[in-house]
Amino acid sequence: MALRFEVLGRFNRARAARLTLPHFTCQTPLFMPVGTQGTIKGLTTDQLEEIGCQIILGNTYHLELRPGSQLIDDLGGLHKFMNWKRALLTDSGGFQMVSLLHLADITEEGVTFQSPVDGKPMLLTPEESIHIQNNIGADIIMALDDVVKTTITGPRIEEAMYRTLRWIDRCIAAHKKPDVQNLFGIVQGGLDPVLRDICVKGLVERNLPGYAIGGLAGGEDKDSFWRVVAQCTAGLPEDKPRYVMGVGYPLDIVVCSALGADMYDCVYPTRTARFGTALVPEGVLKLKQNAMATDERPIDPTCPCMVCKNYTRAYLHCLVTKDAMGSQLLSYHNLSFMMRLSRDLHMSILEGRFPEFVRGFLRMQFPKGDVPKWVRNAMVVAGIDISECCTPAKYPRDAMDAPGTDIPELCPPTKCS
Question: How does it assemble (predicted)?
Answer without folding.
Answer: Heterodimer of a catalytic subunit and an accessory subunit.
